[in-house]
Structure of Carboxy-terminal-processing protease:
Amino acid sequence: MRTKFEKISLVVIGAVLGVSLSLNYPAVAEKDAKPQLPLDELRTFAEVYGKIKSDYVETVPDKKLINEAINGMLTGLDPHSSFLDVDGYKDLQAGTQGEFGGLGIEVGMEDGLVKVISPIEDSPAFKAGVKSGDLIMQLDDKLVKGLTLNDAVKLMRGKPNTPIKLTILRKGEVKPLYITLVRAIIKTQSVKYKLPEPGYAYLRVTQFQEHSAADLAKAIKTLREQNKAPLKGLVLDLRNNPGGLITAAVGITSAFVPKDALVVYTEGRTEDAKMRLTANAANYSRGGEAGDFLKDLPADIKTVPMVVLINGGSASASEIVSGALQDHKRAVIMGTQSFGKGSVQTILPMNNGTAIKLTTARYFTPNGRSIQAKGIVPDIIVEDATVNTADQGMNLREADLSNHLSNPKEAEAPAKETPKPPTVKKDDKQSADKAPMEAGTKTDYQFMQAVNLLKGIDILAPSKK
């Protein structure tokens, strides 16, 4: 019998397949009623297939035609459903283990071009200066226009230490940018931590991987030992975190909220797609209570003052964590509005080593909010001081993607006008032309505002010149 843990394992696409929170339910469930096949439409499909086979200018292998038909059927549904060939499925599985090959970018498709959602920290793309919102128009000498996302991904994959030249369109730049990257095995350290000053801890989660929650628990214990006293404040940094395993999201949230508190629930058409995940070891640890890596955390970690940093690159699992902590009034959410991906994709393996990634449900925060196409709105807006004010609203979000799912809560009732959260004005001395800031340091304006808030400093008061 499958364990509950196995039923809720979530997968993120990884290095180059885009922001995707994916729920692995039992692969094939028996349905009470089998859908009736649309015979007229299938006859049309067979007729088109036959015409291509007989009349197309070149001979096309059957496998290619079938795979393209399957992919088109899925990608036409929404931005996150797709067909994974054998290599793509293997890459997806490897990505959840924290090691995979590629360039280190989360991407989607927009207007026929590959659009960068977020570069993965410490990857070749990140180090070369690839930015969120960049449009990749050419890979070496191959134009992206006309390719499927999977085709583009295949071109970006390759043996480690081999180069590839990206031709990029970037807002604000008159001419295309040419960036040469060297492919690498991407080994991501999903949890980073430090004690920037006595009493105040900094935890950064870059992706939600299989061991992220356990690694966060170890980090908390280490920071507590380094401080030699209860912490006065904690900053959890989820900026540019594209998501990952829901079990990791539940585990990380559970470190800070009471046991059995609701973290997230999902709703879909089938019973398998309806779940309520609480802060319980059964939902985040393969060993259940016996393997609960959170059970010996310091008790005060449940009450330490806390700020969570998010931005437009925070998606899926990041939004589950920040939404739950916001609903439980456990942390102040700070930064800018998140990406807004509130749908769940089931990974369904096929018999031939391929798989399909199918949107099967939407997820909701404990208070019943849908994040889909909306995102998490911070309690306090603090803009990134290294980004030009004019460019703040240009970040790619779920609502910008073609065929994105609607927000069901907004469809149920007219949207009520909600008060805008207070905004901390940018420090004019910080220039967008500076080198990228180092997260969790004095060069990180959003982080410093989080620390100031934890210290009780009124960050909303006008600064004295």
In short: Residues 6-32, 389-394 have pLDDT under 50 and may be disordered. The domain at 101-187 is CATH 2.30.42.10 (Pdz3 Domain).
